[in-house]
Design brief:
By secondary structure, the protein is an alpha/beta fold. Helix content is about 45%, strand content about 20%. It has eleven helices and twelve strands. A five-stranded mixed sheet has the order 4-3-5-12-6, with helices on one face. Strands 10-7-11 form a three-stranded antiparallel sheet. The chain has a two-stranded antiparallel sheet with strand order 1-2. The longest helix is centred in the first third of the chain and has 26 residues.
Length: about 300
């Protein structure tokens, strides 16, 4: 018995089921229907004469044979993705699609006019924007380019450091007046991340001040937190480019440099020489550097 009896398409099925936990979500990943994946699994197991998956109420779990198939599938995927990146990186045409990922507040409050200007200059390049607050995997081609707040470029990524990205506390004038009138900061209503979505940076911001705020509103979207602060739902920790550009908000304290990070435009090294990728990164870095004072809260 050998997993060599499987084909690449079979290995893709193994990967999809393992990562999603079941047939239906795997079918969505693969762009086929549930019945097709069911038949593929049965066909693979028949050819191997062994089960790849144990069926549970909670989903599909790998057997020992399935673990062997998964290891082979992951190795094949790494090689296939590397080949795709190298081929894409050799594209000298200013055409095609660029998959860009960035946080929601950054897209809405900062990047959209720049995207419009880029499209005006390069009309044959299509932008596919993935609004996502978590880091996508550029090695797996989940995106081609990421605009992210991070202290340094992550390992295996390359990019352009735009400069400092600052944040501080913001609130509407009525809430700020309560603070000026002697009410403690901790006693004001607060806006924060939903449980489990808060980043270490935001959690550290509270702890550094010895605060245990009572949250009136929580969201897993920073853009939603900006909007909530604008209507007076509470005090929010916001990036300065969002807080300072909102006429209804004002700063409650100076910027704390300990919580300033950097804004990076990131891509995979295999893609950086592709004409459309280079054009986008050069264009966006020039546009964003014109906003460095806003980004740094100057």
């Amino acid at each position: 018995m050998s997993v060599n009896t499987l084909e690449w398409n079979d290995y893709r099925v193994v990967l999809a089921i393992h990562r999603s936990g079941g047939l239906a979500p795997a079918a969505r990943i693969l762009g086929v229907n549930h019945a097709t994946v069911f038949r593929q699994v049965n066909g693979m197991e028949a050819r191997l004469g062994a089960r790849l998956f144990d069926r549970h109420r909670s989903g599909y779990g790998l057997t020992a044979v399935g673990e062997v198939a998964l290891a082979a599938a992951e190795a094949m995927e790494v090689q296939a993705l590397a080949a795709e990146r190298r081929m894409a990186g050799g594209d000298l045409n200013l055409t095609g699609t660029i998959r860009v990922t960035a946080p929601d507040d950054m897209v809405q409050r900062l990047l959209l006019p720049m995207f419009a200007d880029f499209r005006a200059r390069y009309p044959k390049i299509e932008l596919e924007v993935i609004v996502e607050n978590r880091f996508l995997n550029l090695s797996r081609r989940e995106a081609d380019i990421a605009l992210r707040p991070t202290a340094a470029a992550p390992e295996a990524m390359t990019g352009i450091n735009i400069g400092p990205l600052a944040m501080t506390l913001y609130a509407t004038a009525p809430l700020a007046s309560r603070l000026a009138g002697g009410e403690a900061l901790e006693d004001l209503p607060w806006i924060g991340w939903e449980d489990g979505a808060e980043t270490l940076r935001f959690g550290g911001f509270y702890r550094s001040r010895g605060l245990q705020p009572v949250f009136a509103y929580r969201s897993n979207s920073l853009l939603a937190q900006v909007s909530a602060a604008e209507v007076g739902l509470g005090v929010a920790v916001l990036p300065c480019f969002a807080g300072d550009s909102s006429p209804g908000l004002q700063r409650l304290e100076p910027i704390d440099g300990a919580f300033t990070t950097n804004l990076w435009i990131l891509t995979h090294p295999d893609l950086r020489r592709a004409a459309r990728i280079k054009a986008f990164m050069d264009f966006m870095s020039a546009a964003l550097r014109k906003k460095r004072a806003l980004l740094a809260g100057a």
